Amino acid sequence: MLTWYAQERYHPFSLKHQDQSPNRPGVLMIHGFTGTPDELRPTAQIAFDAGCDIEVIGIPGMGADIGRFLEVRGDDWMASVMERWDAFTTRYRRRVLLGYSLGAALAINAAVSRPPDELVLYAPLVRLADPKAVALPVAKLVLRELTPFTGMDFSQPATKRFFENTMPGLDVDDLETQRAIREDYVLPTRLLNDCRLIGREAGRLARHITVPTTIIQGRPDDVVGHHNARWLADNLGGQVSYHEVAGNHLIPFDSVRSWSEVQPIVERLFARISGGTTG
To answer: How many Å apart are CA 147 and CA 233, to the nearest integer?
Structure first.
C-alpha cells in the first residue's frame, strides 16, 4: 500500500494561471482523514477553470506521506495547516479556504486565526456520527489500534464500489492487495480521538467564523452525521449557504452518484467567487 500511495496523483498539487493578476482569487484546499489531495482534484479543476489559483495540500502522515501515519498526531496536522495557510495568505489579496471532513475542521480552526474572504466546507467534522466516539478518550488507552478492514469480503459489490470510488485503479481482486488491506491497514485509536478533539474545537469556534461560508453535505452521512452539519450551519457567526444532497460522506468524489448534484453547486460557487461578487 505504501507503493500505491507513492503515485503522483496522491501528492499535493497546485493549479496556477500564468499571469500575475493581483485580483485573482487563491484557494487553499485540505483533504480528509486518511485521504489524499486527489479527492479534491475535481473541485480544484472547477475552481481553476473559473479563474482561481489552487493549492491542495497534504495532511502529515496521509496520502504520499502515509509512511508516517503511525507517527503523527493531531497537533502535527494543525501546525502544518496553520503554517501553510499563513504562508498562502501572503500571496493573494482574495483568499478562499476549503476543507473536506477533517480538513473542514482544520479549516475552521485556521480561519479563526487568519480569516479567509470565503470558507467552503465539504461534510464538515464537528462531531463523529458514531455515538461510541464519546468513549475514545478511554478506548485509546485500552485498545490502541484498530484494523477496520479485517474480515472484509471483497466479493461484495458494495466493497468493490467503495474502492473504485476512493482508490481508482486498485485491483481488489488481487489476493496480495486483499491481504494488505485486511492486515496492514492499522488505525491508531489516538488518531481517531484527535479527529474528535479537532472537530469539537471547530464546533466551539463556529460562532467566531464571520466570513461567508458555503457548506455542502451528503445525506445520510454515517461518518460525521448530516445533522451535525446542520448544527454547524445554524451556529456559524456569518452568512451561510447550506446545500444538502442525497448521498453519503464521499461527496467530493466525481465517481459517486451525488457528484451530479454537487458539481453544479461548486461551479456556481467559484464562478461567483472569481467574478468578485459576494452573497
So the answer is: 34
3-state secondary structure string across 142-169:
HCCEECCCCCCCCCCHHHHHHHHHHCCC
3-class DSSP assignment, residue 185 = coil
CB 88 within 8 A of CB 54: no
Domain boundaries, the chain: 2-140+194-275, 148-185
Distance CA 272, CA 254 (A): 21
**Residue ranges for the chain with pLDDT beneath 70:** 1-2, 131-146, 276-279
Phi, psi of 199 (to 5 degrees): -65, -40
Q: For domain 2-140+194-275, give the fold.
A: Rossmann fold (3.40.50)
CA distance 177 to 169: 12
| Tens digits of residue pLDDT in 184-211 | 878 888 999 999 999 999 999 999 999 9
What's the pLDDT at 139?
A: 46
φ, ψ of residue 64 to 5 degrees: the values are -65, -15
pLDDT at 132: 60
